[in-house]
Protein backbone atom coordinates (compact mmCIF):
# COMPACT_ATOMS: atom_id res chain seq x y z
CA UNK A 1 0.00 0.00 0.00
CA UNK A 2 1.16 3.54 -0.70
CA UNK A 3 1.69 5.77 2.32
CA UNK A 4 2.95 9.24 3.20
CA UNK A 5 4.88 9.78 6.40
CA UNK A 6 6.97 12.34 8.27
CA UNK A 7 10.25 10.87 9.40
CA UNK A 8 13.81 11.45 10.48
CA UNK A 9 16.10 10.08 7.81
CA UNK A 10 19.65 8.98 8.66
CA UNK A 11 22.24 8.08 6.05
CA UNK A 12 25.92 7.28 6.56
CA UNK A 13 28.91 6.64 4.31
CA UNK A 14 32.44 5.55 5.09
CA UNK A 15 35.61 6.56 3.26
CA UNK A 16 38.71 4.44 3.79
CA UNK A 17 42.14 6.02 3.42
CA UNK A 18 44.75 3.28 3.13
CA UNK A 19 48.29 4.09 4.24
CA UNK A 20 50.45 2.11 1.85
CA UNK A 21 54.22 1.56 1.82
CA UNK A 22 56.13 3.34 -0.89
CA UNK A 23 56.14 1.12 -3.94
CA UNK A 24 56.29 1.29 -7.70
CA UNK A 25 54.10 -0.73 -10.01
CA UNK A 26 55.76 -2.56 -12.84
CA UNK A 27 55.24 -0.74 -16.13
CA UNK A 28 58.12 -2.33 -18.01
CA UNK A 29 59.85 -5.70 -17.99
CA UNK A 30 63.10 -6.55 -19.72
CA UNK A 31 63.35 -9.92 -21.44
CA UNK A 32 67.01 -10.61 -20.75
CA UNK A 33 66.90 -10.74 -16.96
CA UNK A 34 67.96 -14.02 -15.36
CA UNK A 35 65.15 -13.87 -12.81
CA UNK A 36 61.78 -13.31 -14.57
CA UNK A 37 60.22 -12.08 -11.31
CA UNK A 38 62.60 -9.11 -11.26
CA UNK A 39 61.83 -6.25 -13.57
CA UNK A 40 63.24 -2.86 -14.41
CA UNK A 41 61.11 0.17 -13.56
CA UNK A 42 60.13 2.27 -16.55
CA UNK A 43 61.77 5.26 -14.86
CA UNK A 44 65.14 3.49 -14.85
CA UNK A 45 64.90 2.73 -18.56
CA UNK A 46 63.95 6.35 -19.32
CA UNK A 47 66.84 7.72 -17.21
CA UNK A 48 69.29 5.54 -19.12
CA UNK A 49 67.81 6.68 -22.42
CA UNK A 50 67.88 10.35 -21.41
CA UNK A 51 71.57 10.16 -20.56
CA UNK A 52 72.33 9.57 -24.24
CA UNK A 53 70.27 12.59 -25.32
CA UNK A 54 71.89 15.58 -26.99
CA UNK A 55 71.97 18.23 -24.28
CA UNK A 56 70.74 20.81 -26.80
CA UNK A 57 67.76 18.68 -27.81
CA UNK A 58 64.74 17.34 -25.97
CA UNK A 59 62.62 14.20 -25.70
CA UNK A 60 58.88 13.66 -25.60
CA UNK A 61 57.36 10.85 -23.50
CA UNK A 62 53.72 9.84 -23.97
CA UNK A 63 51.97 7.31 -21.72
CA UNK A 64 48.49 5.91 -22.16
CA UNK A 65 46.45 3.52 -20.05
CA UNK A 66 46.89 -0.11 -20.97
CA UNK A 67 44.58 -1.99 -18.60
CA UNK A 68 41.89 -1.31 -16.02
CA UNK A 69 42.02 -4.67 -14.23
CA UNK A 70 41.84 -4.33 -10.41
CA UNK A 71 44.81 -5.32 -8.27
CA UNK A 72 45.32 -6.27 -4.63
CA UNK A 73 47.54 -3.74 -2.83
CA UNK A 74 49.11 -3.95 0.66
CA UNK A 75 48.52 -1.34 3.35
CA UNK A 76 50.13 -0.59 6.72
CA UNK A 77 47.06 0.95 8.32
CA UNK A 78 43.58 2.07 7.40
CA UNK A 79 42.04 5.40 8.39
CA UNK A 80 38.24 5.19 8.18
CA UNK A 81 36.10 8.31 8.26
CA UNK A 82 32.35 7.75 8.69
CA UNK A 83 30.08 10.68 7.97
CA UNK A 84 26.46 10.53 9.13
CA UNK A 85 23.84 12.75 7.50
CA UNK A 86 20.54 13.45 9.26
CA UNK A 87 17.37 15.03 7.86
CA UNK A 88 14.60 15.94 10.33
CA UNK A 89 10.87 16.22 9.58
CA UNK A 90 11.16 14.79 6.10
CA UNK A 91 7.95 14.01 4.25
CA UNK A 92 8.40 10.85 2.26
CA UNK A 93 6.07 8.84 0.08
CA UNK A 94 6.58 5.17 -0.55
CA UNK A 95 5.13 1.70 -0.47
CA UNK A 96 4.82 -0.41 2.65
CA UNK A 97 5.24 -4.12 2.00
CA UNK A 98 3.85 -7.08 3.91
CA UNK A 99 2.87 -10.74 3.84
CA UNK A 100 -0.74 -11.68 3.08
CA UNK A 101 -2.62 -14.25 5.21
CA UNK A 102 -6.05 -15.82 4.67
CA UNK A 103 -7.61 -14.03 7.67
CA UNK A 104 -5.57 -10.82 7.65
CA UNK A 105 -2.42 -8.98 6.66
CA UNK A 106 0.90 -8.67 8.47
CA UNK A 107 2.55 -5.43 7.31
CA UNK A 108 6.28 -4.77 7.64
CA UNK A 109 7.80 -1.51 8.85
CA UNK A 110 9.92 -0.87 5.75
CA UNK A 111 9.25 2.00 3.38
CA UNK A 112 10.95 2.44 0.02
CA UNK A 113 12.33 5.87 -0.82
CA UNK A 114 14.97 7.45 -3.01
CA UNK A 115 18.06 9.05 -1.46
CA UNK A 116 18.55 11.23 -4.54
CA UNK A 117 15.44 13.17 -3.50
CA UNK A 118 17.34 14.45 -0.45
CA UNK A 119 20.14 16.99 -0.77
CA UNK A 120 23.23 16.38 1.37
CA UNK A 121 23.67 20.13 1.77
CA UNK A 122 20.35 20.31 3.61
CA UNK A 123 21.34 17.74 6.22
CA UNK A 124 23.19 18.07 9.49
CA UNK A 125 26.32 15.93 9.50
CA UNK A 126 28.82 14.47 11.93
CA UNK A 127 32.11 12.72 11.18
CA UNK A 128 34.13 10.19 13.12
CA UNK A 129 37.60 8.96 12.17
CA UNK A 130 39.15 5.70 13.38
CA UNK A 131 42.55 4.22 12.62
CA UNK A 132 43.17 0.50 12.29
CA UNK A 133 46.89 -0.28 12.50
CA UNK A 134 46.45 -3.87 11.35
CA UNK A 135 48.28 -4.66 8.11
CA UNK A 136 46.20 -6.00 5.26
CA UNK A 137 45.33 -5.69 1.61
CA UNK A 138 42.65 -3.83 -0.28
CA UNK A 139 41.42 -3.86 -3.86
CA UNK A 140 42.57 -0.95 -5.96
CA UNK A 141 41.00 -0.20 -9.32
CA UNK A 142 43.25 -0.65 -12.31
CA UNK A 143 43.00 3.03 -13.19
CA UNK A 144 43.97 4.13 -9.69
CA UNK A 145 46.94 1.75 -9.74
CA UNK A 146 47.96 3.02 -13.16
CA UNK A 147 47.83 6.66 -12.02
CA UNK A 148 49.97 5.90 -8.97
CA UNK A 149 52.51 4.07 -11.12
CA UNK A 150 52.73 6.84 -13.70
CA UNK A 151 52.94 9.62 -11.13
CA UNK A 152 55.61 7.72 -9.17
CA UNK A 153 57.58 7.38 -12.39
CA UNK A 154 57.30 11.09 -13.19
CA UNK A 155 58.21 12.21 -9.67
CA UNK A 156 61.37 10.14 -9.80
CA UNK A 157 62.29 11.52 -13.23
CA UNK A 158 61.77 15.07 -11.96
CA UNK A 159 63.95 14.37 -8.92
CA UNK A 160 66.88 12.62 -10.67
CA UNK A 161 69.60 14.69 -12.34
CA UNK A 162 70.62 13.66 -15.84
CA UNK A 163 74.41 13.36 -15.63
CA UNK A 164 74.81 14.25 -19.30
CA UNK A 165 72.86 17.53 -19.09
CA UNK A 166 73.15 18.42 -15.38
CA UNK A 167 69.41 19.05 -15.35
CA UNK A 168 66.49 17.05 -13.94
CA UNK A 169 65.53 14.28 -16.36
CA UNK A 170 61.90 15.48 -16.52
CA UNK A 171 60.90 19.07 -17.16
CA UNK A 172 58.60 20.31 -14.39
CA UNK A 173 58.62 24.08 -14.82
CA UNK A 174 55.91 26.09 -16.50
CA UNK A 175 54.75 25.10 -19.98
CA UNK A 176 52.53 27.30 -22.11
CA UNK A 177 52.36 28.66 -25.64
CA UNK A 178 55.26 31.01 -24.87
CA UNK A 179 57.60 28.21 -23.80
CA UNK A 180 60.67 27.97 -26.01
CA UNK A 181 63.02 25.13 -26.83
CA UNK A 182 65.68 26.93 -24.80
CA UNK A 183 63.45 26.53 -21.73
CA UNK A 184 63.15 22.76 -22.06
CA UNK A 185 66.28 21.66 -23.94
CA UNK A 186 68.18 18.79 -22.41
CA UNK A 187 65.04 17.46 -20.69
CA UNK A 188 62.01 15.25 -21.26
CA UNK A 189 58.44 16.53 -21.58
CA UNK A 190 55.82 13.99 -20.48
CA UNK A 191 52.24 13.59 -21.65
CA UNK A 192 49.47 11.41 -20.20
CA UNK A 193 46.36 10.19 -22.00
CA UNK A 194 43.58 9.58 -19.48
CA UNK A 195 40.65 7.31 -20.30
CA UNK A 196 38.10 7.29 -17.49
CA UNK A 197 35.28 9.83 -17.56
CA UNK A 198 35.35 10.27 -13.78
CA UNK A 199 39.12 10.31 -13.35
CA UNK A 200 39.17 13.87 -12.01
CA UNK A 201 37.32 12.59 -8.92
CA UNK A 202 38.93 9.17 -8.55
CA UNK A 203 42.48 9.47 -9.83
CA UNK A 204 45.34 10.40 -7.54
CA UNK A 205 47.03 12.98 -9.75
CA UNK A 206 46.47 16.06 -7.63
CA UNK A 207 47.05 19.35 -9.43
CA UNK A 208 50.81 19.37 -9.76
CA UNK A 209 51.82 16.29 -11.71
CA UNK A 210 54.65 17.34 -14.09
CA UNK A 211 52.99 16.28 -17.34
CA UNK A 212 50.69 17.39 -20.11
CA UNK A 213 47.23 15.80 -19.89
CA UNK A 214 44.68 15.07 -22.58
CA UNK A 215 41.59 12.91 -22.77
CA UNK A 216 42.08 9.83 -24.92
CA UNK A 217 39.45 9.71 -27.67
CA UNK A 218 39.44 7.30 -30.56
CA UNK A 219 40.18 9.36 -33.65
CA UNK A 220 37.75 8.87 -36.50
CA UNK A 221 38.95 7.31 -39.73
CA UNK A 222 38.67 10.42 -41.87
CA UNK A 223 38.80 13.42 -39.53
CA UNK A 224 41.62 14.52 -37.22
CA UNK A 225 40.60 15.74 -33.79
CA UNK A 226 41.75 18.83 -31.92
CA UNK A 227 41.11 18.55 -28.20
CA UNK A 228 42.14 20.15 -24.91
CA UNK A 229 45.63 19.81 -23.51
CA UNK A 230 46.43 20.89 -19.95
CA UNK A 231 49.66 21.24 -18.02
CA UNK A 232 50.03 19.48 -14.62
CA UNK A 233 46.40 18.40 -14.09
CA UNK A 234 43.80 16.34 -16.02
CA UNK A 235 41.47 18.06 -18.45
CA UNK A 236 37.74 18.25 -17.90
CA UNK A 237 35.62 15.31 -19.12
CA UNK A 238 35.49 15.32 -22.89
CA UNK A 239 33.28 12.68 -24.47
CA UNK A 240 33.76 11.24 -27.95
CA UNK A 241 34.96 14.53 -29.44
CA UNK A 242 31.49 16.08 -29.27
CA UNK A 243 32.35 19.00 -26.98
CA UNK A 244 34.30 21.93 -28.31
CA UNK A 245 37.87 22.38 -27.05
CA UNK A 246 38.86 25.39 -24.99
CA UNK A 247 38.82 28.39 -27.35
CA UNK A 248 40.82 30.78 -25.17
CA UNK A 249 43.97 32.00 -26.95
CA UNK A 250 46.33 30.67 -24.29
CA UNK A 251 44.81 27.16 -24.12
CA UNK A 252 47.07 24.33 -25.24
CA UNK A 253 45.68 21.92 -27.81
CA UNK A 254 46.39 18.41 -29.11
CA UNK A 255 45.65 17.64 -32.78
CA UNK A 256 45.89 13.99 -33.75
CA UNK A 257 44.77 11.25 -36.05
CA UNK A 258 45.42 7.88 -34.51
CA UNK A 259 43.49 4.65 -34.73
CA UNK A 260 45.34 1.34 -34.88
CA UNK A 261 42.25 -0.48 -36.09
CA UNK A 262 42.11 0.87 -39.68
CA UNK A 263 38.77 0.11 -41.31
CA UNK A 264 39.23 2.48 -44.25
CA UNK A 265 42.76 3.00 -45.53
CA UNK A 266 41.87 5.88 -47.85
CA UNK A 267 40.07 7.64 -45.00
CA UNK A 268 43.24 7.35 -42.90
CA UNK A 269 45.24 8.93 -45.73
CA UNK A 270 42.66 11.73 -46.01
CA UNK A 271 42.85 12.39 -42.27
CA UNK A 272 46.64 12.74 -42.38
CA UNK A 273 46.37 15.14 -45.32
CA UNK A 274 43.74 17.18 -43.48
CA UNK A 275 45.82 17.29 -40.30
CA UNK A 276 48.78 18.63 -42.23
CA UNK A 277 46.54 21.38 -43.60
CA UNK A 278 45.45 22.26 -40.07
CA UNK A 279 49.08 22.34 -38.89
CA UNK A 280 50.10 24.55 -41.83
CA UNK A 281 47.32 27.08 -41.19
CA UNK A 282 47.99 27.16 -37.44
CA UNK A 283 51.71 27.64 -37.89
CA UNK A 284 51.38 30.25 -40.63
CA UNK A 285 48.98 32.16 -38.39
CA UNK A 286 51.41 32.14 -35.48
CA UNK A 287 49.41 29.75 -33.26
CA UNK A 288 52.17 28.09 -31.28
CA UNK A 289 49.99 26.14 -28.86
CA UNK A 290 49.25 22.81 -30.54
CA UNK A 291 50.99 19.45 -30.32
CA UNK A 292 50.56 17.27 -33.41
CA UNK A 293 50.46 13.49 -33.50
CA UNK A 294 50.07 11.45 -36.65
CA UNK A 295 49.83 7.67 -36.78
CA UNK A 296 50.65 6.27 -40.22
CA UNK A 297 50.95 2.81 -38.65
CA UNK A 298 48.34 0.37 -37.45
CA UNK A 299 46.79 -2.78 -38.82
CA UNK A 300 44.46 -3.54 -41.71
CA UNK A 301 40.89 -4.24 -40.62
CA UNK A 302 39.39 -3.09 -43.91
CA UNK A 303 40.25 -6.29 -45.76
CA UNK A 304 38.21 -9.15 -44.28
CA UNK A 305 36.71 -6.89 -41.60
CA UNK A 306 36.33 -8.35 -38.10
CA UNK A 307 34.06 -7.03 -35.33
CA UNK A 308 36.71 -7.91 -32.74
CA UNK A 309 39.86 -7.86 -34.84
CA UNK A 310 43.02 -9.79 -34.14
CA UNK A 311 46.34 -8.17 -34.93
CA UNK A 312 48.68 -10.15 -37.16
CA UNK A 313 52.02 -9.38 -38.77
CA UNK A 314 50.38 -9.57 -42.20
CA UNK A 315 47.80 -6.92 -41.25
CA UNK A 316 50.58 -4.61 -40.03
CA UNK A 317 52.67 -5.26 -43.13
CA UNK A 318 49.75 -4.31 -45.38
CA UNK A 319 49.45 -0.94 -43.66
CA UNK A 320 53.20 -0.32 -43.54
CA UNK A 321 53.71 -0.89 -47.28
CA UNK A 322 50.86 1.47 -48.15
CA UNK A 323 50.99 4.16 -45.45
CA UNK A 324 54.77 4.54 -45.29
CA UNK A 325 54.93 5.01 -49.05
CA UNK A 326 52.00 7.44 -48.94
CA UNK A 327 53.56 9.53 -46.16
CA UNK A 328 56.92 9.54 -47.94
CA UNK A 329 55.35 10.79 -51.18
CA UNK A 330 53.53 13.55 -49.32
CA UNK A 331 56.55 14.78 -47.39
CA UNK A 332 58.91 14.72 -50.37
CA UNK A 333 56.45 16.41 -52.75
CA UNK A 334 58.47 19.37 -54.08
CA UNK A 335 55.37 21.59 -54.30
CA UNK A 336 54.42 20.98 -50.66
CA UNK A 337 54.89 23.69 -48.05
CA UNK A 338 56.87 22.69 -44.98
CA UNK A 339 54.46 21.66 -42.22
CA UNK A 340 55.18 20.83 -38.57
CA UNK A 341 54.76 17.07 -38.41
CA UNK A 342 54.88 16.65 -34.64
CA UNK A 343 55.10 13.03 -33.53
CA UNK A 344 54.86 10.41 -36.28
CA UNK A 345 54.15 6.75 -35.48
CA UNK A 346 54.87 4.11 -38.10
CA UNK A 347 55.20 0.33 -38.51
CA UNK A 348 58.48 -1.41 -39.28
CA UNK A 349 60.80 1.42 -38.26
CA UNK A 350 63.55 -1.23 -38.36
CA UNK A 351 62.29 -3.61 -41.07
CA UNK A 352 63.55 -7.15 -41.55
CA UNK A 353 66.89 -7.42 -43.35
CA UNK A 354 66.42 -7.36 -47.10
CA UNK A 355 62.99 -5.71 -46.90
CA UNK A 356 64.08 -2.09 -46.47
CA UNK A 357 62.76 -1.06 -49.88
CA UNK A 358 59.42 -2.76 -49.18
CA UNK A 359 58.58 -0.50 -46.24
CA UNK A 360 60.62 2.65 -47.06
CA UNK A 361 61.26 3.13 -43.36
CA UNK A 362 64.73 4.66 -43.67
CA UNK A 363 63.65 7.03 -46.43
CA UNK A 364 60.57 8.09 -44.44
CA UNK A 365 62.57 8.81 -41.27
CA UNK A 366 65.08 10.83 -43.29
CA UNK A 367 62.25 12.79 -44.92
CA UNK A 368 60.70 13.56 -41.52
CA UNK A 369 64.04 14.87 -40.21
CA UNK A 370 64.60 17.01 -43.29
CA UNK A 371 61.04 18.34 -43.10
CA UNK A 372 61.54 19.44 -39.51
CA UNK A 373 64.62 21.38 -40.57
CA UNK A 374 62.78 23.11 -43.37
CA UNK A 375 60.97 25.84 -41.47
CA UNK A 376 62.12 28.57 -39.15
CA UNK A 377 61.27 28.55 -35.49
CA UNK A 378 60.20 31.80 -33.88
CA UNK A 379 62.81 32.99 -31.41
CA UNK A 380 62.19 33.89 -27.78
CA UNK A 381 61.04 37.49 -27.49
CA UNK A 382 59.86 37.79 -31.09
CA UNK A 383 56.37 39.19 -31.51
CA UNK A 384 55.92 38.53 -35.21
CA UNK A 385 54.26 35.28 -36.34
CA UNK A 386 56.57 32.48 -37.39
CA UNK A 387 57.19 32.36 -41.11
CA UNK A 388 57.44 29.10 -43.01
CA UNK A 389 60.49 28.65 -45.16
CA UNK A 390 61.61 26.06 -47.68
CA UNK A 391 65.21 26.93 -46.90
CA UNK A 392 66.87 24.52 -44.50
CA UNK A 393 67.68 26.20 -41.19
CA UNK A 394 70.97 24.67 -40.05
CA UNK A 395 70.70 26.30 -36.61
CA UNK A 396 67.75 24.10 -35.74
CA UNK A 397 69.32 20.77 -36.70
CA UNK A 398 69.53 19.65 -33.07
CA UNK A 399 65.78 19.81 -32.61
CA UNK A 400 64.66 17.48 -35.39
CA UNK A 401 63.42 14.72 -33.11
CA UNK A 402 60.55 16.56 -31.51
CA UNK A 403 57.22 18.21 -32.11
CA UNK A 404 57.53 21.89 -32.98
CA UNK A 405 54.42 23.23 -31.24
CA UNK A 406 53.76 24.83 -28.85
CA UNK A 407 57.54 24.93 -28.50
CA UNK A 408 58.49 27.82 -30.71
Helix and strand composition category: alpha/beta
> End-to-end distance, in Å?
72 Å
Taken as a percent bin, the fraction of beta residues is 25-35%
Q: Please tell me what the overall shape is.
A: globular
H and E order: EHEEEEEEHEEHEHEEEEHEEHEHH
SSE topology sketch:
Elements: E1 2-19, H1 42-50, E2 59-64, E3 71-75, E4 77-101, E5 104-111, E6 124-132, E7 136-140, H2 142-159, E8 161-162, E9 167-168, H3 181-184, E10 188-194, H4 199-202, E11 212-215, E12 225-231, E13 252-257, E14 261-262, H5 265-284, E15 290-295, E16 299-300, H6 313-331, E17 343-345, H7 356-359, H8 361-373
Parallel strand pairs: 2-10, 10-11, 13-15, 14-16, 15-17
Antiparallel strand pairs: 1-4, 3-7, 4-5, 4-6, 8-9, 11-12, 12-13
Provide an overview of this structure.
By secondary structure, the protein is an alpha/beta fold. It has 8 helices and 17 strands. It has a 7-stranded mixed β-sheet, with helices on one face. Strands 1, 4, 5 and 6 form a 4-stranded antiparallel β-sheet that branches. A two-stranded antiparallel sheet has the order 3-7. A hairpin with a 2-residue loop joins strand 4 and strand 5 (104-111). Helix 1 packs parallel to helix 2 and helix 6 (313-331) runs parallel beside helix 8. The longest helix has 20 residues, at 265-284. The model is unreliable at 384-408 (pLDDT under 50).
